[in-house]
Amino acid sequence: MDTRIIVVTSGKGGVGKTTVTANLSFRLAMEGYSVVAIDADIGLRNLDVVMGLENRIVFNIVDVIEEACKLPQALVRDKRVENLHLLPAAQTRTKEAVTSDQMLKLCNSLRGKYDFVLIDSPAGIESGFRNAAAGADEALVVVTPDVSSVRDADRIIGILESNQKKSIDLVVNRVRSKMIRSGKMLGVSDVSDILAVNIIGIIPEDDNVVTSTNKGEPLTLGSTSAAARAFENVSGRILGREIPLPDPTSFDENGLLTGLKKMFGRKAGRG
Amino acid sequence: MGFLDRFFKKKENSRKSARERLQLVLIHDRTDISPGTLERLRKDLIDVISDYMVISEDGIEIDLETEGNSVALVASIPVLEVKRQRSRKRDR
After folding, report:
1. ipTM for the complex?
2. Distance from CA of A247 to the nearest CA of B (A)
């Protein structure tokens, strides 16, 4: 089994790394692949709550590295989707608790056992990020269409390139069609021109992301919202399917047409 | 501003300024030259050029400038006097 180890990173915080990691992990597992999602944000654990697995954690990544437990003991198995596992971060430790070499060793110990390992990186360009990226062959850089996020992504891409990652792809998150159309927001083409990196996904801003996070049920688990579909397409492209990128100016949750469709859809459903 | 002016005012295109500002700032980020490095470069340049001509050290301007997608190191160095022969003080 050829294991693909992918780090999800961004530089800037709050752009959606954890949401992307959670949704892609669920989707890939639902496609039948075995997946380990690793929370590498030691001290600021969050992937567990976003995935809805926070109540089932016994051991964490630092326990594994310090050999307080075996790796399989620390993996939290999801009960909703087969073959999905979470390796949680430690909450009461700091990023200094692990080194790059230890992360590399940990990642390599997963090779051959799972199809995908997705690593949720902490924000920043310091040790936490470097550790998260150490064992990965590929990188997904999450970026939102704003100047600070794009600038930070550029730094991260520079570091990843110098670390010779096999591939670096961009996920443009929180895209607001209406603002792009009226020239008030950077378009996806602006972001790709500036960063010169392949775009693997365009995710619209979607209220459902908030509500799904509230419940600990990632969108890809069953929602049909715009963001859920976008995440499905990203996972399809990761699997090598030829799925054309959507028009970033066409996501319109609140558009008139969509509104009418919803209205009629609801009526039809009732009737 | 009159009512009509306000009504027909051209939409402010902040996307354009975001794009332009980013492109500019990234060129500096990518060249990764710190002020300290630039200062060392300045001193070395003065050293080398002084072998050939007398220059005004106070009037030197060194900067990275962008044109399209390329970066140029632009130095403006006022020459006070051209030496007739290369002095040998830098022989190593």
Report:
1. 0.78
2. 17
